[in-house]
Design goal:
Length: 486
């Protein structure tokens, strides 16, 4: 599909069953050095299998996925690789081969622990601490296997498993680390037991793993990128609920990369959850307004992204309260209908600003794709500067409308903007769920831009005393070979 044709996303249903194919051999889909180090952790005569999945750079869309927005994601070159070997003692053993080295031996648990005595699958306590410890990673492996069994992606795990995990991806929530681990685990297990992977079920299992095991009330964007992302392309995901609407190839003379700054606020999950609650409050109020006025609402199906910016400003914005206490909202309207969150009675929610972020973010994502299409068609790089301005607007909205900013990511974005278009740096924004950790940058592929980025890193270090790391390059998802959709 030509890029110009991709500028308009069409409704085409959920992820298609044609993607339900058996993963290719590990050497075809993983970084050879990473796969080799992982498989060397599994010595013996029994065949070993490996799969890997990339991290995710959120370029636009971000948290607006749960409002039905268009989300643009690029798979990173940094990946998580999982190797597995069958064993016959109905036991699962999880080991790590990661830098820096993690102390301790393998974590082992019985296969039966994936099932409760009454047949219902056990779940970890939501929101358990993250981190590259064997215990945390073993919990992730158990979680995604449980969700794969629950969702029918796996009918059974007929024997035990030795599992080895390696990664070049840092353990940051905004880079999709845990989802890449989950996708790579499913890919390797599917190979070990000659199971066909159905992409729709795989994405659903990973999303439930994020929601129920990790305590993240998020949509499918991380999982779609981990399974289906294509090298040097933006995946267009229309989250209504999960329509993969093609890819946008990144031109050779344009670069999209990440700057990682190790910033992650400890209250991130709480703030993220409250933003979602306020957004669903706004959605419920919009629904009441539409139905009360009895106007033709065939267009309205509960997704805030269905609302145009002009309609929102002209007829809805001033009718949505700026803020409301949870108890007052419950007394007047009840719960929001969102199964992943609940209203805290004593919390004051900023309903209007949270709601409008998602409406504007959806519009920005469409405009971004249109800018890339025009830039490629006309070879006019001034258009890419327009795309960069959309990223700056998104970053501002994360911080000001949603309260999900961080001083360190703000600093990086400001340093990129100071260098500016004259230095071939077009735009930057906080990536993923907000509150710090990762910044996405749009730049021209030139020596001048390279020098400007080095200046950004040096300035960041001089102002904070901390190193920032570049995340360069791209790779394909766990169900994609040679950069092409299967």
């Amino acid at each position: 599909m030509r890029l110009e044709q991709q500028a308009k996303v069409r409704q085409r249903g959920p992820v298609r069953s044609a993607l339900g194919v058996k993963p290719s051999p590990a050497a075809d889909r993983t970084d050879n050095g990473l796969a080799t180090s992982v498989l060397e952790t599994l010595p013996g005569s029994v065949p070993c299998y490996a799969s890997s999945a990339p991290g995710r750079l959120d370029v636009l869309g971000g948290i607006a996925e749960y409002a039905g927005a268009l989300v643009l994601s690029m798979p990173l070159a940094d990946r998580v690789c999982v190797g597995v070997r069958r064993r016959d003692d109905k036991t699962i053993s999880v080991d790590l081969t990661m830098e820096p080295a993690v102390d301790g031996g393998p974590v082992t648990f019985p296969l039966s622990s994936l099932d409760a005595a009454d047949g219902a699958l056990k779940k970890s306590e939501p929101g358990r601490p993250r981190g590259a410890s064997r215990e945390a990673i073993a919990d992730c492996v158990a979680g995604v296997l449980c969700e794969a069994l629950r969702g029918g992606l796996l009918q059974e795990i007929p024997s035990g498993l030795d599992v080895a995990v390696g990664s070049t991806l840092r353990d940051l929530g905004d880079s999709g680390w845990e989802t890449a681990l989950a996708a790579a685990t499913l890919g390797a297990v599917a190979q070990a037991f000659s199971i066909q992977i159905d992409a729709k079920k795989a994405v659903a299992a990973c999303q439930r793993f994020q929601n129920d095991w990790l305590g993240w009330p998020v949509g499918p964007a991380d999982a779609v990128c981990a399974f289906l992302g294509e090298t040097n392309s933006l995946t267009q995901l229309l989250c209504q609920p999960c329509d993969v609407a093609g890819t946008v190839p990144i031109p050779d003379d344009l670069s999209i990369f990440g700057i990682e700054c190790d910033a992650c606020r400890p209250d991130l999950k709480v703030k993220h959850r409250r933003v979602r609650v306020a957004t669903f409050m706004g959605r419920l109020l919009v629904d009441r307004i539409v139905r009360h006025e009895q106007r033709n609402h065939n267009w309205w199906d509960g997704y805030l992204s269905r609302i145009s910016v002009s309609d929102y400003v002209g007829s809805l914005r001033d009718r949505i309260p700026t803020r409301m206490k949870g108890k007052d909202f419950l007394d007047h309207f009840g719960e929001t209908g969102d199964s992943l969150t609940t209203i805290e009675p004593d919390q004051v929610y900023k309903i209007r600003s949270r709601t409008e972020h998602h409406i504007y973010e959806h519009a920005r994502a469409f405009q971004f794709v249109e800018c890339l299409a025009r830039g490629m068609r006309t070879d006019d790089h001034r258009v890419f500067a327009e795309a960069g301005e959309l990223m700056y607007a998104s970053h501002w909205s994360y911080g000001q409308r949603c309260g999900l900013g961080d001083v360190r990511t703000d600093l990086i974005v400001n340093l990129v903007r100071k260098q500016g278009v004259g230095a071939d740096l077009y735009g930057a924004k906080i990536s993923g769920r907000g509150c710090g950790g990762l910044v996405a940058v749009l730049a021209r592929t030139t020596d001048r831009a390279e020098s400007a980025v080095e200046g950004v890193l040096e300035s960041f270090k001089s102002k904070t005393g901390n190193e920032a790391r570049l995340l360069r390059g791209s790779s394909s998802g766990a169900l994609v070979q040679d950069g092409r959709g299967t």
